[in-house]
Amino acid sequence: MAKTIHVVNGDAVVPNLLASGIQGDIVVWREMLCDGPVCAKVGSDVFWKKRLDFFDEELGVSKIEYFDKTIKELMKLEDLSNCNELVMWFEFDLFCQVNLMALCAYLYKNFRKTINYTLVCTGIVNGKSLLQSLSDFNANQFVTLYENRIKLSKTNLEFATACWNIYVENNIEKLKKFNFKNTKFQYFQGAIETHLKRFPIEGGLNEIQYKILDIINSSAHTAQEIVQKLLIWQHKETIYGFGDIQYLLYLKELANFFQISEEKYFINEAGKAIIKK
Fold it and tell me: pLDDT tens digits for the chain (277 residues)?
């Protein structure tokens, strides 16, 4: 019997989706393609090799663990012959939108006309000042989100694939020039505008790196305290959608600009100099 498959943006979504009573199998997307090396052919040997090495070398996630948690999960999408609908559950931020582009590129490459491709993507909600994530909705509200899902055509998946290819190329001029605006993918443009802030600006650092140095310069903090301040800043002022792991990576990259004493981070002369630029 034909079935529905839900591809969700993380494990945190699963309990509410199950509690909602919405039928279907669940596949969890456990990746963060907005960081680390990527290639256009999602799911290819080259693609997985790049991701395996990145998680192993930079995040301390063994290749076996990555295979079990990520590759093995997405292998469930290799045979969709018994699927009549595939629902994607994602959010507005850069983290999710890049993953969504990649997923669409994978589905476009393996497109089946017998499948209804649909999208639930949270963000703007009437009466809310901040953009809403899936975690802002309860199980009953998941039913409403599902009922209002957006149908995606092959042309829509092709557009998302083009967006993914431009993102992978990561040429700043092409990213600025390409029109990511689309009624079906209303958060692509904002995500890419946020991504552009990760390119170096005057002084050689990007927005996130300058923010980290500003936090360290303001007062001595532990790594976790720095991350907490970044998460608060992110929630109020940006749409990066990053987690602790990513911000700790950014902190690690700035080692030349601070010193650590008793687990507290202190700005050094190089850090002070670059902040003044």
Answer: 569 999 999 999 999 999 999 999 999 999 999 999 999 999 999 999 999 999 999 999 999 999 999 999 999 999 999 999 999 999 999 999 999 999 999 999 999 999 999 999 999 999 988 899 999 999 999 999 999 999 999 999 999 999 999 999 999 999 999 999 999 999 999 999 999 999 999 888 999 999 999 999 999 999 999 999 999 999 999 999 999 999 999 999 999 999 999 999 999 999 999 987 7
Q: Domain ranges for the chain, please list them.
A: 3-195, 207-276
Q: Are 94 and 194 in contact (CB under 8 A)?
A: yes
Cα of first residue to Cα of last residue in the chain, in angstroms, is 64
152 CB-near residues (< 8 Å, 6+ apart): 104, 117, 118, 119, 184
The alpha-helical segments, DSSP class H, found in the chain are 14-20, 45-59, 63-66, 72-74, 94-109, 139-147, 154-169, 172-177, 188-196, 207-218, 223-237, 244-253, 269-276
Residue 66 · residue 56 · CB < 8 Å: yes
Q: Is the distance from CB of 123 to CB of 187 less than 8 angstroms?
A: yes
The answer as to CATH 3.10.290.10 being correct for domain 3-195 is no
Taking the C-alpha atoms of residue 213 and residue 58, their distance in angstroms, rounded to an integer, is: 21
* Cα torsion angle, 55, 238, 160, 136, sign: positive
* Domain at 207-276: CATH architecture: Orthogonal Bundle (1.10)
pTM, two decimals, is 0.95
